[in-house]
Structure formats: structure tokens, C-alpha cells
Amino acid sequence: MTTFRLAATELRRLTSGKLPKLALLAVTLVPLLYGAMYIYANWDPYEKLDSVPAAVVVDDTGAEKEDGRPLNAGQDVHRELVDSGTFSWTRTDLRRAQEGVANGDYTFALVVPADFSKALVSPADFTPRQAKLRLITNDANNYLVGTIADKLAGEIRKGVASHAGATAAEQFLLGFSTVHDKTVEAADGAGQLADGAGRLHDGLGEAQQGGTQLSDGARQLLAGQQRLASGANRLADGTGQLHTGLQQLQDSTAPLPEQTAKLADGAEEVAQGNEQLAQRANVVGNLSQDIVDNLDQTKAQTAQQLRQAGVDDATTQKIVDGLDQLSSPATNANAKLQNQVGPLNELARGARQVADGNRALANATPELTDGIDQLADGAEQVDDGAVQLRDGQQQALSGTSRLADGADRLVGGTRQLYDGSGQLADGSSTLATELGKGADDIPHPDDPTRKATADTIGDPVAVDTQAQVKADTYGAGLAPYFMGLALWVGGFVLFLLMRPMSHRALAAGVAPWKVALGGWLPAALIGLAQAVLLFAVVVFAIGVHPAHQWETLGFLVLTSFAFTAVVHSLNAAFGPKGKFIALVILVLQLVTAGGTFPWQTIPEPLHPLHQVLPLGYVVTGLRHLIYGGTSDAVGQAAAVLLCYLVAALLLTTIAAWRQRVWTPSRLKPELSL
Fold it and tell me: Can you name the residues that pair with 136 across neighbouring β-strands?
């Protein structure tokens, strides 16, 4: 009996009636129903999220930005949620949102608190606090939706933070531009200050020269004033002496009219004293002449002192004319007196002549005394004027001295200002130069550059995903896992109908390897049909487009052969217990294959199972074939499946060899499935 005859016999048995045919068709379609329906149902759930109800609560009261513009970040968040098309958003209040999440009307709720915008602008006032979004979830509604909501809230937080950071960075960069512009203005101002300081320095140099000339002139003026004061002192002394002499003359001539009158009256009586009278007349004439002579000399000295004191000629001439007027009576009296001296001298020769002369003298003496009085009064006025001139000159001398000292201080202060203005000019020039250099170092980007820089600062890291291979949809991403499981389930259900081995062939002494191979071939043939149907529906009906289409089909066929061989060997070796073992292996592969999460995330004690069990290799091989990965991973997975296929057939052969001898346990098994 050949292997193919054994396989054909088993197939005829399975198709001998209507119900067996239907059962065979059902088990053939099991992988298709399992794998294709799973992939179809989970094809692209993210596209359907807009039908999932969610609540949004916007309590944000808004805030005012630093530039005075309003900020309503809560409204922006709501608008972005609606525009995003994710979930079916309903805007409501907090109480209704909480109740809706609790009773399942909403799968979750996103709450924007009242101080959301104020918290965003709080760093500008140096009172920073985080703006918080509140997410209300209920895993009783759906765990994965809550996970997606967490991710959505994170994206919203990232977007708001990026916008807020970009806005703050733009204001910050705008501040830099303002600082740059102000620094440039400051540099220009410092340059102008340097120019002005230079001009001030030059002007102070000229002022210093003028101050020096002023000081020299003030010193010369002081020397002249000192000489003028000395002359004024001498003038005052001379006029004082003149005044004193005239007072003495006035005192001495005051009784002269009475005496001359008496002399005239007593001329007759005092004839004998004519000689004495003539002598006195000579004395008086000499004294009068001396007074007149002294008046001329005093007048000359006064004129000279006035000119030396700096009194102009017109004033000096007025004073001299005044002195002439004052001395005119004395001069006239002197002339008259001198004219009388001769008669007095003749008095000695004749009494009559003396009496007449004395009468004439008595008549002239009042005029003389009046002239002397007038001269004395004029001398007093001249003396008062000279004293006033001396006092005024002393005041002028004191003022000139102060003027000279002030001029010296002015020269010293001007010199200090001159030196300081030079330092100011140098410092201003240095300041202008350094400010100009500093302005070049201050960033001053234009509007597009500032906006781009602010956007980069606000969101400095962007993920540029370069997918070497990529699944088109969520269903395509799970297809390798579901298709591998479907083929294992398909192989498992086949042996609910099929017999692992032909006992008749074993009793007839057919070679164990032929019995083993003959028992596997019907399952392999139906498994081939399962793999082809699964491939056709998934590719052409559901829309998974493998990068390597025919290689994918071949790999699915190899997987089906390996899985049916393994399940066949378990049933052949362990009998009814083999079905349970196959089911346990299915469960272990469900959790260790890494079909959803990376296999490294499973507990570490389960890691060896991933390395040993075949489904993980099937998932890896199908991923690389469907998405377009490397051929090395496909080759490794195919090699592992071939090893499982050969090992399973070898185990089935050993089981067939052992089952040639019947034992009590085989005749009456403890467990029958």
C-alpha cells in the first residue's frame, strides 16, 4: 500500500457522505473565517474614531498677552479638536461630562480648566505655572480608547506648548531685535556725544586761553588799581592838609575886620604904632601871598593826582576850575592886601596916609575874610571828595582783587574741564565703537527668520520617521499574526475529523514512514486549500498588498504544511491528549509570538518560548514578505518551519513504528476525545 493510496483512502472517507463533505468544507474555511474576519474587523479602526463619542469641557476664561492681545487657548483647543476629525466631540459642562463618562454616553472627556490661558502667559510675569488639561476616562467603556485619549491629550499638550513656546520665543527674539536697534541708536548717540565732546574739548581749549588772558588782564587791572589807590590816598592826604591850613587861616583872619576897623578908628591914636602896623601888614601880605602860592601848588598837585588816579581830563578840569573859583576871593584879597602894603609902609611917614590906608584896609578886610571862608568851605568839599574817591578806590581795589582770584580759579576750572572733556571724548568714542561691535553680536533676525526660529525653539525636536518598511493600515499590521494563528487553528480543527494514521495499514505491516506520510498528506492538501483561500481573500478582497506576493503565498503554504504536520504528529504520538497539547501550544503562541506588542515586552520567563515555538518565526517571515523587509529573516523563518515539518514527520514515523504493537492502553484508552 503506497502513501498516496493511504491519503486517497482517508480523503474518500471524509467525502463519503453529505455531512462529511460539509464538515470538511467547514474545517477548510475555519482559517479563512478566523484570519480574514479578524483582519477585516480590525482593518483601520483609527478611521472610525470620529464615530466614537467624546466630551470636551472648555471653562477657560482667557487671558491677556504681554503685548495686550487677548489669548483664548481653551477655544483654540476646542477648535483644533473639532477640526482634527478624531472622535465625535460634544461640548458640554463638567457635571454632564462626568456623568456621561460614568454611564457610557461618552467614552472619555477632556476638560480645559478656567485658568488655562492665564497659566500659559504666567511666565511673562515671572510667576510660572503649568497649564493643565484634565482627562476623564473610564476603562469600563473601553481600555484602548482611554489609551488613545491619553495619546490625544499628549498631542494637544504638545501642540499648545509648541504654540505657546513659539509665541514666547518670538517675543524674546523681538526683544533681541529691539535691543539691537536701541544699541545701534545708543552707538550713534555715543558717536554724536564723542563729536560733541570733541567740539567741547576744542572750545574749552579756546576758553582756557581766554581765561588765561582774562587772568592776566585782571592782574594788570589790580596793579593799576593799586597804583590808583595809592594816588587817591595821597590826594586825600593833600586835600586834608589844605583843608586844615585853610581852617587855620580862617581862624586867624576871622578877627581881622574888627581889628582893622579898630585900627582905622584908632589910626590917629596909634600913630606911634604905624611902624608896627606896617610890619603886621607886611606879615599879612606875606602870609596872604604864601596862601595864594600854596593854593596854586595844591591845585597843581591835585590835578596831577587825579590824572594819576585815572580820572578823565574833563573831570579833572572841572575840579581845577572849582578850586580856581574857591581860590579867587583869596587871590583877589591877596592882591588887595598887597596893594595896601605900600600905603601901610607910607603910614610911617604920615598919619593921614596911615589912617586912610587903615580905613581902606578895614573896608577890604571883610572881603578877605569872606574869601578865606569860601576857600575853606571849598577845601572841605574837595577833601570830602578826595576821601570818597579814596574809599571808592579801595572798594574797586578789593573787587579787582576778587576778580583776579576768580579769574585764576576760572582758569583752573577751565583746565580741569578741558582735561575732562578730552577724557569724555575718548570714552565716548570708545563707547560708540564697542556699542557698534556689540550691536553686531546681538541677534536681529527679520520677520520670517524670527518666526522660523521661534517655531523651532517652541518645538525644537521633530520626528522624521523613515520607515524602511511600513504597513498601510492597522489591519495590515496585524495580518501576519492573524494569518499565522488562522493556519494553526486550521490545522488543529482538521484532526477533529481526520485520523492521524491508518490502523489497517499498520496492521498490514506497511512501512511506518509511509503510514506517517499517508496520514499527513490529506491534512496537507486541505491545509494547502486553507492557505490559498486565506491568501486570496486577504489580498484580493480585504486589500492587504504584499510586497512579495507569490513568495507570501508560498510561505503561507509552507506554514500550513508545518503546522498540520506538528498537529498531526501530536495526535499521532499522544492520541486524544495530543489535541489538548496542540491547544496548549496555541495558547502559548498567542502570548509569545509578538504579534501585537514586541515579544521583548512579555515576561522574561516566557522569552525562551518565543525562541522555540514556530508562530513567532511565521509572524516575522510574513511581516518581511508583506511589508518588504529583508530576505534573511524570511530565509531563517522558512528554515525553522522546514525543521518543524521534518521533525513532525519524524515524530509521526516514530509514533507509527511504536503503534505497530497493540497494548492494553491502546485497546482501552483512559481518555477519548
Answer: 109
Average of pLDDT values for 441-458? Answer: 59
DSSP 32-47: IIIIIHHHHHTS-GGG
Instruction: With cut-offs at 50, 70 and 90, classify the pLDDT of residue 351.
Output: low
Please give the grid coordinates belonging to residue 572: 499521532
Which residue did the predictor score with more confidence, 138 or 673?
A: 138
Residue 462: band (very low, low, confident or very high) from pLDDT cuts 50, 70, 90: very low
For the ranges 148-157, 176-185, 518-527, the one whose mean pLDDT is highest: 518-527
CB 112 within 8 A of CB 60: yes
Residue 78 makes CB contacts below 8 A (sequence gap 6+) with: 56, 58, 89, 91, 112
Question: What is the residue type of 103?
Answer: N
Query: Looking at the domain covering 49-185, what would its CATH class be?
Result: alpha beta
Cβ-based neighbours of 476, under 8 Å, separated by 6 or more: 39, 43, 544, 626
How far apart are the C-alpha atoms of 286 and 67, rounded to whole Å? Answer: 112
> Which carries the bigger pLDDT value, residue 270 or residue 655?
655
Distance separating alpha carbons of residues 339 and 361, to the nearest angstrom: 10
Is the dihedral angle over the CA atoms 317, 320, 324, 326 positive or is it negative?
A: positive
Buried b (16+ CB within 10 A) or exposed e, 61-84: eebeeeeeeebbbbebbbeebeee
Residue with cell 581795589: 397
Query: What is the side-by-side order of every strand in the sheet holding 134-137?
Result: 88-91, 53-58, 108-112, 134-137
Nearest alpha-carbon partner for 183 in 421, 360, 438: 438
Of 326, 266, 268, 278, the residue nearest 299 (C-alpha):
326
**Which residues, including other chains, have CB under 8 Å from residue 298's CB and lie 6 or more apart?**
238, 239, 242, 323
CB 361 within 8 A of CB 281: yes
- Give the per-residue SS3 of 172-205: HHHHHHHHHHHHHHHHHHHHHHHHHHHHHHHHHH
